[in-house]
Amino acid sequence: MTRMRTGAMVAVMLGVAWPSAVQGQERRGPPSVPPDTSQAMTVEAYDPRSTLVVPENPVTRAAFPFVDVHLHLNGTMPRAQLDQLVRDMDALNLAVGVNLSGGTGPRLAQQVEAFEAAYPGRFVVFANVDFSDIGDPEFGALAAARLEADVEAGARGLKIFKNLGLWLTDAADRRVAVDDPRLDPIWAKAGELGIPVLIHSGDPASFWEPMDERNERWLELRLRPRRQQTGPPSFEVVLGEQLNMFRRHPGTTFIAAHLAWLGHDLGRLGQLLDEIPNMNVGLGAVIYEPGRQPRFAREFFIEYQDRILMGKDSWAPDEYPTYFRVLETADEYFPYYRRYHAFWRMYGLDLPDEVLRKVYFENALRIISDVDRSRFP
User: Fold this and answer.
1) Measuring CA to CA, which of 50, 120, 218, 311 is 20 to 30 A from 184?
2) H or E element, residue 150
3) How far apart are the first and last CA of the chain?
4) CA Rg, the chain, in Å?
5) How far apart are alpha carbons 360 and 352 in whole angstroms?
6) CATH number of the domain at 66-375, please?
7) Per DSSP, what are the bridge partners of residue 123?
8) Chain centroid to CA 212: how far?
9) pTM of the prediction?
10) How many CA atoms lie within 13 Å of 348's alpha carbon, on the beta-carbon side?
11) ∠200-202-204 over CA atoms, to 5°?
C-alpha cells in the first residue's frame, strides 16, 4: 500500500476531508505527455539493449573437436581462401567439415580431389541429385547409377535440397513429392552403399501461416517476402511425405536437416524418432529452437543423444559461438545472432560431456564413413 493511500485511509477514519486535488493525483498519476512522433520507430528497427545483469560465459571454441555436417562451400575456391577457411575452422575446433554442395559427376570428383590434395581429412563431400532428366522413364535407375559413380569418386553421402517437395516439377509440370516412387531407387542405392541421406524438406511451419501480428516469423517474412509459403503443398503434406519416405526405406540412414522443422515441437519430434529408427536430425540453422526452451530441450538432447548431429548451415565463423554457448553453458537470456530468425533470447542447455561428444562428433563418425577418426578424442 502506498503512502498516499495510507494517508487517505487515515483521513477517512478521522472524518477529515481529503483534498480533491490530492485525490486526483492518486487516481491519475502525473500529467500525461503526448507521444513524441519525431521519434517514431518501426518494428524492424526496434532492437532494445537488455539491462539484465546475469553471469556470462561466452564460448568461442567448442569443448570437443566437432564435425559440421551441414556446410555449403565452394569446392573450387582459391587456395588463399581455403587456407583462411581452415584457420577459422581450427580456431573453432571444427575438425571436419561436410560440404553438402558437391554436385554430381566431374564437378563432384574435382571437389573431392581439390579438398583432399590441399587438406587431407579435413573435408567430406556429399553428392547431389540431378533432376533434369526426371521425365525419363528410367530416371530412378539412372540417378542411382550416378550416385554409385559419385561414391566411387569419393562422395560420402547424399544431400537433397528443399526444391524436392516444394517447387520441383516433372515433364508434365506436376510437383514431385518427396516420397515419389520414381525416386525409390535413389534411396535404396544409398542404403546399399551405406551412405547417409541428409535431406531438407519444407520450411518453418510459420511460413505457411498468415503474415499478421500473431506470426512469430513475421519479421523474417517482412524482410524476406519470398520465403512466405502460400501452398499447396502445406507444411504437413511435405513433412508427411518425408516421413513416409523414411519409413519406406528402413535400410537407409536419413538425417532430417533443421531438426525436421519440428524444433518448436520437440515432443512430436521425439515420438517420430521413437517410431522411425533410421531417422536422425541435424541442428543446422535452428539452434534458436532449443535455445528458447532449455529445460525441455535438455531432456530431449539427453534422451535422443544418439540421433542429433552438429551442423551450422551457412559458413559464418562468428555465429558458431552461439551454438557452443547454447549447448555447453547454463547461461541465461543471451542474444541470438540473427534477429529476423529469432527475436527472443537464448538459454544454455548445459549438456553433459557424454552428450556433447555424441552431438559434436561421435554420431557423425558412426553415420558417415571414412571420416578421419584420428582428429577426435
Assistant:
1) 311
2) helix 139-152
3) 62
4) 26
5) 12
6) 3.20.20.140
7) 97
8) 24
9) 0.89
10) 21
11) 105
Which value, to the nearest 10 degrees, does the dihedral of the CA atoms of residues 291, 292, 296, 298 take? 20
Q: How many helices (H) and strands (E) does the chain have?
A: 14, 9
- Distance (Å, whole) CA 206 – CA 273: 22
Which residues make beta-bridge pairs with 242? none
Cell of residue 236, nine digits? 504437413
Cell numbers for 154, please give them.
569419393
State residue 333 phi and psi, 5-degree precision. 55, 55
Nearest partner of 116 among 147, 156, 146, judged by Cα: 156
For residue 127, list its beta bridge partners.
158
Closest CA to 287 of 269, 313, 305: 313
Residue the block writes with cell 566411387? 152
Average confidence score pLDDT of the chain: 91
C-alpha cell at 22: 490530492
Distance between CA atoms of 333 and 296, rounded to whole angstroms? Answer: 16
Residue 159 phi/psi, 5-degree rounding, is: -115, 130
Contact between 133 and 159 under an 8 Å Cβ cutoff? The reply is no
9 phi and psi angles, rounded to 5 deg: -65, -45
Residues 6+ apart with CB under 8 A from 66: 93, 94, 95, 310, 360, 361
DSSP annotation string for 250-311: TTS-EEEGGGGG-TT-HHHHHHHHHH-TTEEEE-TT-TTTGGG-HHHHHHHHHHTTTSEE--
Confidence at residue 7, expressed as pLDDT on a 0 to 100 scale: 43
The grid coordinates of residue 98 equal 561436410
pLDDT, tens digit, 9 for 90 and up, residues 296-334 = 999 999 999 999 999 999 999 999 999 999 999 999 999
Q: Extract the residue ranges of the chain whose pLDDT is less than 50.
A: 1-27
Write the single-letter amino acid at 70: H
Torsion of CA 154, 160, 161, 167, to 10 degrees: 140
Cell of 50: 537488455
- Per-residue cell: 256: 532430417
175 closest CA partner among 249, 237, 225 = 237
Question: How many Cβ atoms are within 10 Å of 328's Cβ, its own excluded?
Answer: 20
Helix (H) or strand (E) holding 160: strand 158-160
* pLDDT score at 8: 42
